[in-house]
């Protein structure tokens, strides 16, 4: 797989247009087109940014390996672009995941070890989970389209997107140290 093919596949797996990737990378859409067509390659600073944004190594981007790993993306959001933190969540989701993407609101709980569950039971049911919930009150979403499933979190003006396996249960699933429950589809308000 060439660098251009990898970039195009990464962009598509996150549902990004060339314009959106260009905005994330702070380059022109034409630069993205050139890179994807293997008519040029990103300079070292853009390779470093791609590596940082998508959580992959520069080595991976430049070698001929065909298999793309599970991907993640982090993007610093421009907080001046949105009215307030809470009302911005829907605007951010609408911007990055318009229809036909489906966006579901998730609740998150800590996936506890047996020791933590025992401690939580002895101290008082829910104490550990309550402390964890107060530690991370940021919203989580499941975003789906076709066979793609993304776990999306917005925290401290950073959009984090993690590609989930395509066989992930949409109603209830675990990821790393968290359990997620689907609370229903987000319906965008018309303005």
Mind explaining what this structure looks like?
The protein has 191 residues and is an alpha+beta fold. It has two domains: 3-69, 434 Repressor (Amino-terminal Domain) (Orthogonal Bundle); 76-185, no CATH class. 39% of the residues lie in helices and 25% in strands. Strands 1-5-4-3-2-7-6 form a seven-stranded antiparallel β-sheet. Strand 3 (140-145) and strand 4 (148-155) form a beta hairpin. Helix 2 crosses helix 3.
Features of the shown structure:
191 residues, alpha+beta, 434 Repressor (Amino-terminal Domain), 2 domains, 7-stranded antiparallel sheet, 7 strands, 39% helix, globular
Uncertain ranges: none
Strand order of the biggest β-sheet: 1-5-4-3-2-7-6
Strand content: 15-25%
- N-to-C SSE series? HHHHHEHEHHEEEEE
Radius of gyration (Å): 19 Å
The rough form would be described as globular
Mean pLDDT over all positions: 85
Q: Pairing-aware structural class of the strands and helices?
A: alpha+beta
DSSP strand count: 7
**Amino- and carboxy-terminal Cα gap:** 43 Å
Number of domains: 2
Helix content: 25-40%
What is the number of helices? 8
Biggest sheet features: 7 strands, antiparallel
């Amino acid at each position: 797989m060439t660098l251009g093919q990898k970039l195009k596949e990464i962009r598509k797996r996150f549902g990004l247009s060339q314009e959106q990737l260009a905005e994330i990378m702070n380059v022109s859409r034409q630069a993205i087109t050139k890179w994807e067509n293997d008519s040029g390659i990103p300079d070292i600073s853009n390779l470093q940014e791609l590596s940082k944004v998508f959580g992959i190594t520069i080595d991976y981007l430049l070698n001929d390996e065909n298999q793309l790993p599970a991907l993640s993306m982090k993007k610093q959001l421009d907080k001046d672009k949105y009215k307030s933190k809470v009302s911005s969540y829907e605007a951010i989701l609408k911007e990055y995941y318009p229809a036909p993407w489906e966006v579901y609101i998730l609740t998150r709980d800590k996936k506890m070890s047996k020791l933590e569950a025992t401690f939580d039971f002895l101290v008082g049911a829910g104490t550990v989970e309550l402390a964890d919930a107060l530690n991370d009150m940021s919203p989580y979403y499941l975003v789906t389209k076709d066979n793609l499933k993304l776990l999306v979190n917005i925290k401290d003006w950073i959009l984090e997107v993690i590609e989930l396996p395509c066989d992930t249960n949409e109603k209830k699933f675990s990821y790393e140290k968290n359990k997620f429950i689907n609370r229903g589809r987000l319906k965008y308000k018309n303005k």
